[in-house]
Amino acid sequence: MNLIDLRSDTVTKPTPEMRIAMAQAEVGDDVYGDDPTVNKLQELAAQMAGKESALFVPSGTMGNLAAILAHCGRGDEAMLGDKAHTFLFEAGGISALGGIHSHQLPNQPDGSLLLADLEAGLRPDDDHFPPTRLILLENTHNRCGGTYQTPAYNKQVRDFSDQHGIKIHLDGARIFNAAVAQNLPLTALTEHVDSVTFCLSKGLSAPVGSLLCGTKDFIYKAHRARKMLGGGMRQAGILAAAGIVALTTMVERLSEDHARARKLADGLHEMRDLELESPATNMVFVTLRDSVKKSAIEIAEELKARGLLVGKVSERRVRMVTHYGINDGDVKDALAAWHAVLS
Ligand SMILES: *Cc1c(COP(=O)(O)O)cnc(C)c1O
After folding, report:
1. How far away, in angstroms, is 202 Cα from ligand 1 center?
2. Would you report the helix, strand and coil content of the chain in percent, each value rounded to 5?
3. Alpha carbon distance 207, 191 (integer Å)
4. Which fold has domain 13-249?
5. Contact indicator for 56, 41 with CB cutoff of 8 Å
6. pTM of the model
7. Residue 149, Ramachandran bin (φ over 0: left; ψ between -120 and 50: alpha; else beta)
8. Fold of the domain spanning 253-342
9. Nearest to 175 by CA among 241, 106, 85, 238
10. Could you give the C-alpha distances from 261 to 15, 132, 280, 321, in angstroms and in order?
11. Ligand 1 center to residue 61 CA distance, Å?
C-alpha cells in the first residue's frame, strides 16, 4: 500500500535535481574549510538571510545549541517559550551541555512571547539572579500549529532587547514557510534578530542539514561550538549540494503546501467529531471531540490501516503536515480515510 505520510515535512526525500547535484558535487575537507560546495551554500544562506556569515550544521537541534552556546556562557539565562522546540524537543541540551538556565514564558496562540512577559522575566542586576543574555523566538511556531510572527513583532522584541543589551536567536526551522505565507523576503523576518537557524531538511526537502546565520564574530564562536559538539563534517559538499538546490528551487513552492493544508483543514472541518485550528502554513492540528470515544493513538492506528500516517501530539490531538511528497489526490484520500475511521 502506498502510504500518505503526513507525520511531518521531515519525511520528504531529495528531488531528482538534488540527486544529480549530489552526485556531481565538488567536495573537499570542510574541517579544513576546503569544501567548495559547503562554502557556496554558506555564502548563499548568509546572503538570503541578510547576515555576514553562515555555518552548515547537521541538524536544526545542533544549530540552535551551537547558537545558544555562542551567545551565552554557563550560568547565563535564556528566555524562551514554554512550547518552544528548544525547550520541549532538544533533550535539554542548553542546560545539560551548556549550563544555561532556561526561563520559560507562556507562548501565545500565535507562538509569540508577550512584551509584558519579557519585561517581567528580565532579571535585575543582583547576585541572586542568573544574568538574562538571550531571547529565543520560533517562526513558524511548531507546537503552536505552524503559526507565524510578523516583522512588526520582531521589531518590538528588538527594541526591547536593545534597551537591555540582550541578544535574540530565532529558531527558524520553518522560516521560509513564514516568509512565503506573508509574501515577504526572508530578510524581512531575520533583520531584527542577531542569529537564525533554518532547516533544509523539512519543507525544502533536502536530505540533511541546517544553516546557522549571524555576524562573522558570532559564527566564529558557533564554529568552535559545532566542533565541540562533534558536528564538524568532512566531504559535506555532497549534502550541501542538495541544500543549494533546496534554497534555489524549493522555497516558492511552499505556498502549494499551505494551500493543501487549508484544503485538508476545510475537509476535516466538515466532520463534526473534530475541532480544527485554521492552518497558518503547512500544519493542521485537530482535536478529537468528546463524541469520539477512541484515543488519538487508536485513531492514528486505524488511519494507518487505511494508508494514512498522522502525528500523535497528545491523547486527543493529532498533527498533519503537508509537504513536497503530498499532492491534491493525497489530500482527497486522507479525507476519505478520516471519514471512514470516524463513521
Ligand atoms: C525540526 C525543528 C527543529 C530541529 O531540527 P532537527 O533538524 O530535527 O534537529 C528545531 N526547531 C523547530 C521549530 C523544528 O520544527
Report:
1. 9
2. 45, 15, 40
3. 28
4. Aspartate Aminotransferase; domain 2 (3.40.640)
5. yes
6. 0.97
7. beta
8. Aspartate Aminotransferase, domain 1 (3.90.1150)
9. 85
10. 21, 38, 9, 7
11. 6
Which residue is associated with the grid cell 505565507?
A: 181
Which residue spans of the chain are classified as CATH 3.40.640.10?
13-249
**Residue nearest atom 4 in ligand 1 by C-alpha distance:** 60
Q: Report the candidate in 180, 178, 217 with the shortest Cα–Cα distance to residue 195.
A: 217
What angle (nearest 5°) sits at the alpha carbon of residue 198, between those of residues 84 and 151?
Answer: 75
Tens digits of residue pLDDT in 134-151: 999 999 999 999 999 999
Per-residue pLDDT of the chain (343 residues; tens, 9 = 90+): 689 999 999 999 999 999 999 999 999 999 999 999 999 999 999 999 999 999 999 999 999 999 999 999 999 999 999 999 999 999 999 999 999 999 999 999 999 999 999 999 999 999 999 999 999 999 999 999 999 999 999 999 999 999 999 999 999 999 999 999 999 999 999 999 999 999 999 999 999 999 999 999 999 999 999 999 999 999 999 999 999 999 999 999 999 999 999 999 999 999 999 999 899 999 999 999 999 999 999 999 999 999 999 999 999 999 999 999 999 999 999 999 999 999 8
Return the bridge partners of 276, or none.
286
Q: Is residue 61 lining ligand 1, measured as CB closer than 6 Å?
A: yes
Establish whether residue 244 lines the binding site of ligand 1, counting it when its CB lies within 6 angstroms of any ligand atom: no
Ligand 1 contact, 197 CB (< 6 A): no
281 lines ligand 1 (CB under 6 A): no
Q: Please work out whether the CB of residue 295 comes within 6 Å of at least one atom of ligand 1.
A: no
Q: How far is the CA of 80 from the centre of ligand 1 (A)?
A: 15
Cβ of 173 below 6 Å from ligand 1: yes
User: What pLDDT sits at residue 343?
Assistant: 86
| The C-alpha cell that represents 203 in the structure block | 519543507
**Do the beta carbons of residue 319 and residue 313 sit within 8 Å?**
yes
